[in-house]
């Protein structure tokens, strides 16, 4: 796809999303690589802009340089953010009780701890990213499953074949210990997330190396 056409498609997607104020977001495209710049009013809005961009066909990669700027009158103290983060994580049924620790410094939230599954790690991240006052989230929660399923590769391939979004035969899955390596060609950027989600869905997986290429 032509870079000018792709840029306009991304701008239209950002304008269409009611959760995004695209007035201060800059979009640059070079050979399918998108750079998002400018500033937004919350971290949740920043994530929404990135997700909207990922969904546009033709996007090969994203360089995300959007800054979160809160008005001085709306800034939230770090201790308040930390207290709210601890509470929302505790209320989330997908996050095991007491395993995720929270640190906040200048609006940046750092999550640490150990969980059994990737979805638990992601749940902790999703719980705090929409909190007011958050500038960014560093997710250092580790995945260390207690029980590993031996035939991880077969289970990942089966999950890919069940998904109707793309041709699973174009993806190669290699498993080395608790690490999954994805290789092959895909048709759209968002298919990476589908493939990665399938890889993380298998018990015993602690890391995923995504070498998928967008045609």
What is the topological layout?
Blueprint: H1 3-16, E1 25-30, E2 33-40, H2 43-54, E3 61-64, E4 67-68, H3 78-91, E5 100-105, E6 108-115, H4 118-129, E7 136-143, H5 152-162, E8 171-176, E9 179-186, H6 191-200, E10 207-214
Parallel strand pairs: 2-3, 2-4, 6-7, 9-10
Antiparallel strand pairs: 1-2, 5-6, 8-9
Can you characterise this structure?
The chain has 215 residues and is of the alpha/beta class. Strands 1, 2, 3 and 4 form a four-stranded mixed sheet that branches. It has a three-stranded mixed sheet with strand order 5-6-7, with helices on one face. α5 runs antiparallel to α6. The longest helix has 14 residues. The model has no long low-confidence stretch (mean pLDDT 87).
Short description:
With 215 residues, this protein is an alpha/beta fold.
Number of helices: 6
Distance between the termini: 11 Å
Low-confidence stretches: none
Percentage of helical residues? 25-40%
Radius of gyration: 19 Å
Shape: flat
As a percent range, the share of strand residues is: 25-35%
Protein traits:
215 residues
